[in-house]
Design goal:
Elements (H helix, E strand, L loop, with lengths): L34 E6 L7 H11 L2 E6 L3 H10 L8 E6 L3 H6 L3 E2 L23 E13 H6 L20 E4 L5 H14 L15 H11 L3 E3 L2 H8 L4 H5 L6 E5 L2 H7 L10 E18 L5 H11 L2 H6 L1 H4 L2 E2 L8 H6 L11 H19 L2
Parallel strand pairs: 1-2, 1-3, 6-7, 6-8
Antiparallel strand pairs: 3-9, 4-9, 5-8, 5-9, 5-10
Helix pairs in contact: 5-6, 6-14
């Protein structure tokens, strides 16, 4: 979910991943009960001082093993679950959660402070196999300067994107190889359904998400492999896109992308150069869990407690550009001003995603890329 993430291999079947099924020889800090190992995707980040405070107070040294993009990391964790690489896994989101749970990736643990997590994110309360850590919205971002120059109102909804006024303006990521690409597909499936009558009375695409994507394809949507290429090479509103002389003023990214454009700019602008089409958002939740067969379960439990502590939750937004899930956590001013969460994002139950994800991606690939 992080703004820095280029997430690939999201829906690759386990049998297609060329990975060893044995754990790392240094897994879980074996032989060192004072080392606790966190396995994550490449976008994990935390302030050194915050992590240092945890290590000092708990007595554990934290080892972080970054294992590629989210989909790859989850698949590898499943393959190595009998001899895991670490003690805690962070970064499985609601699009892949059912796969991890069905494969017995985690053992139960109710983290201290779980009762302070926003209620809507607590989906595994009966078993406590995973703990919600952060949330974020995948949304279409727009280049304010482009729309001002062309005296065109930026889109606000999925339906706007298939209108002639926005032809050849949108770039999105491949749903088979990218987390935001998959999230955008799921957002359209949540909005329009899998055929038949759309749940939205205002929708014009009554044939379900497939019919919507036919219209989006006809309206010139461009598909690239991952977020990095889409956002930094193709999107005219990003700092990278300006340097690359990109020509697409609409991109599938995150609601937290506009704050990042302000925070990383030098000098900092008074307002974000990009905006969010709030009616195109899909809510992602990321979870962490104590790995089955973890070598250091006591340390793993302490680490999970830390991940939902006020100190970590307050620190997280400006490191991974996601929203905290703890009710009392502080949201940075830049997020409130430039990247507020969508009021009514599209959502989908993990079980429904599990039942349909692979077939939807297969259908999407045939429909959009061929």
């Amino acid at each position: 979910m992080s703004i820095k993430r280029t997430t690939t291999a999201v829906v690759v079947g386990l049998g297609l991943v060329t990975l060893s099924a044995c754990g790392s020889s240094d897994s879980g800090g074996a032989g060192d009960p004072k080392t606790v190992t966190l396995v994550s995707h490449d976008s994990w980040a935390v302030s050194k001082s915050v992590l240092g405070d945890f290590e000092k107070q708990s007595g554990y040294k934290v080892k972080v093993l970054k294992d590629g993009d989210a989909g790859q990391a989850v698949n590898k964790a499943i393959l190595t679950k009998d001899n895991p690489q670490g003690d805690v896994f962070f970064g499985v989101d609601n699009t892949l959660l059912s796969r991890a749970l069905d494969n017995g990736l985690f053992q139960p643990y109710e983290a201290k402070g779980s009762d302070q997590i926003v209620q809507q994110y607590r989906i595994d309360q009966g078993k406590h196999r995973v703990t919600p850590i952060d949330s974020g919205d995948i949304c279409v971002n727009y280049d304010k300067a482009y729309f001002s120059k062309h005296k065109l109102a930026p889109p606000t909804s999925f339906e706007d994107l298939i209108k002639p006024a926005y032809k050849n303006l949108l770039v999105t990521e491949n749903a088979a190889t990218s987390s935001p690409g998959l999230g955008f597909l799921l957002g359209t499936a949540a909005k329009y359904g899998d055929g038949g009558t759309s749940r939205s009375s205002e929708a014009e695409s009554g044939g379900g998400w497939q019919d919507y994507w036919k219209k989006l394809k006809a309206n010139g949507v461009k598909v690239v492999d991952g977020w990095e290429q889409a956002y930094n090479d193709e999107f005219s509103g990003s700092a990278g896109g300006k340097k690359a002389k990109a020509d697409r003023p609409l991109v599938v990214s995150y609601a937290s992308s506009p704050p990042a454009e302000v925070i990383y700019a030098d000098p900092k602008p008074k307002t974000a150069p990009t905006g969010v089409a709030s009616g195109t958002c899909f809510r992602q939740i990321e979870y962490a869990g104590l790995l089955s067969n973890a070598k250091n379960t006591k340390g793993g439990k302490a680490l999970l407690d830390f991940l939902i502590s006020v100190k970590f939750q307050d620190d997280m937004p400006l490191n991974m550009f996601v929203y905290p899930v703890r009710e009392t956590a502080q949201v940075p001013e830049e997020f409130v001003k430039f990247g507020p969460q969508a009021e009514h994002p599209e959502t989908m139950a993990p079980a429904k995603i599990a039942d349909n994800r692979d077939q939807w991606v297969k259908s999407w690939t045939s429909l959009v890329l061929k």
